[in-house]
Amino acid sequence: MPSRTALVTCRPGPHISVDRDLPLLAAELERSGAAVTVAYWDDPEVGWAAFDLVVIRSTWDYSWRREEFLEWAAHCASVTRLANPVDVLRWNTDKRYLGDLARAGVPTVPTSYIAPGQIPALPADGEYVIKPASGAGARYAARYTPAERDVALRHLARMHAEGLTAMVQPYLSGIDVNGERAVLFYGGAFLHSVRKGAVLTPGVAYDERKVAHPGLEPWQPTEAERAVAQAALAAVPGGSDQLLYARVDLVDGADGRPCVMELELVEPNLFLGSVHPGSVRAVAEAIVKAAT
Question: 284 CB contacts (<8 Å, ≥6 apart)?
């Protein structure tokens, strides 16, 4: 009997990107002999216990509904195998995990946090970025100069009104030169890497929709980039052996060396059809192996 796998996505919406990798991956899994179902994570009619493996693919609305999403994940994990595990999802859906990585010695973008009710402390010099600690796709993210403090404070007030904790990071100008690099892993092995341009440009409002992955192109990660990516995975609570997939987003720090901007363990875009169509088979093979 073929393994039964669910690929989990979210319902379409005006602020939701289209997962163009999903049909490619489902078709490749079917060619490999797996029984595949594409399902919405919040569909009450889905019986998750019927699957040997549930793979989170593109639940790109989770940051609007984090607690509800984690409740679903906990239920799902109680009746079948969920990838990635629910404890990883709980940790990774709150970007305060960057502090855990930094304390483990992983180079990360310096980050401070402003929770609702706290007095805002914003940089007095240099450009900086504000974004939510639970967010995806550059939602509620914007880039500021010290002269734009009033606008930044309105940004914070909006997020705090929704109960969101804000992150404040220096804007690392190296991203304007060398872009952001994503190093991807699947089934415990290096999959591929991409480079993209800067997402945040001056003067773009925090509530304006951004292109999350501009100027995508294949990338060969350097030895230093691979080392930082591996260090980030090694610092995941519970160890990296539990991960089916991971994406480590890197930028050049103030010293010119790669550092972690984000560690994507929930629903990372894999850039299969757009940049690396040759990786579809490797991803499908890893899923089939995990389901059996």
Answer: 25, 28, 29, 31, 32, 34
